[in-house]
Amino acid sequence: MKQRGAAYETVMGRVADGGFAVLDGGIGTEVARRGGLLGAWANLANAELPDTVRAIHADFIAAGADVISTNTFGCTELSLAAYGIHGREEELNRVAVALAQEARERAGAERPLLVGGCMTTTSYRGPEGKVAPAEEDWALASQARTLADAGVDFLMVEMLSHVERARVELAAAATAGLPVWAGFSCVTDEEGNLALLNQPDEPLVESLRRIDLSGVDVAFIMHTRVPEVEPSLAVLRCVWDGPLGTYPHGGSYARPNWEFDDDFTPDVLAAGAERWLADGCRIVGGCCGATPAHIAALRGVVDAAARAR
């Protein structure tokens, strides 16, 4: 039996009734914008720049986010070890949850606010990373349990971009006993064919069919560029009849810096959201490069859609 708190039930009840929710933007890219280092996917900022991380959460809440995500992307023992960081996985995850919770409490918002525990693959080396499935499962399950014990409302399993890894990630998240949201990252090749980011030789629909989503509450297209969101959502609908969401990105990481797309503006994201909501999406937000200004623009679109119901 999955643990679902009152706030989670309220938000998901609204979604089930045809309403909407707003997700936050890119935590790591905001850390970088505000002068923090992105090494180890900005996880060290939880301990070294806690005021910055807390302020980012607060700014996203003020912009209108109903859901904020912890700064724990890639915060597993294996991923941290790849950056020479050992023995700090539990500390960095717990601090990240505490910072998100503090921002929520200080906001004093009348609307329910959820804290999602962000998870992704153990290291960012693509499907040829040579991490044994059992080792990856252990690292991800450990993070999932830590996030759950620290008090997140649900788990956000992000960057699902390869079938075998997606299976491991979702199975590991399920061990924590919390609701799970699943986010798929998609790309289009030169011929217009859609695929998972790290499985480019297989059609997207075939990859998705090979992933068990029975334990998922919401399925997303995320870390996907705006023009690719609509066709990716259409494919996702072929294999998933539950709530849909999306949070696109507008940047790419070329060590040691982020490169942001000039055309990933709040207005562009808002215009896309109008179409996605009309097509059945229930939760919208932003990924890498999405600022509080992007989330404020989405809030306006969601509020207008809610009034028009």
Give a verbal description of the structure.
- The protein has 309 residues and is an alpha/beta fold.
- The chain has one domain (6-308): Homocysteine-binding-like domain (TIM Barrel, Alpha-Beta Barrel), CATH 3.20.20.
- It is 46% helix and 16% strand.
- The protein contains 12 helices and 12 strands.
- The protein has helices at 6-16, 27-33, 45-48, 50-63, 77-82, 89-107, 133-150, 163-174, 204-209, 226-239, 266-278, 292-308, and strands at 21-22, 67-69, 114-119, 154-160, 180-184, 186-188, 194-196, 218-222, 244-247, 251-254, 257-260, 283-284.
- The strands form 3 sheets. The protein has an 8-stranded parallel sheet with strand order 1-12-9-8-5-4-3-2. It has a two-stranded antiparallel ribbon with strand order 6-7.
- A hairpin with a 2-residue loop joins β10 and β11 (257-260).
- The longest helix is centred in the first third of the chain and has 19 residues, at 89-107.
- The two termini are 33 Å apart.
Give the overall silhouette.
globular
When the domains are counted, the total is: 1
The poorly predicted ranges are 124-128
Series of H and E elements: HEHHHEHHEHEHEEEHEHEEEHEH
CATH class: Alpha Beta
Structure class: alpha/beta
CATH superfamily: Homocysteine-binding-like domain
User: Termini separation (Å)?
Assistant: 33 Å
Number of DSSP strand runs: 12
- What is the percent of helical residues? 40-55%
How much is the radius of gyration in Å? Answer: 18 Å
Largest sheet: 8 strands, parallel
Helical region count? Answer: 12
Strand content: 15-25%
Supply the CATH architecture.
Answer: Alpha-Beta Barrel
CATH topology: TIM Barrel
Strand order of the largest sheet: 1-12-9-8-5-4-3-2
Indicate the mean pLDDT: 93
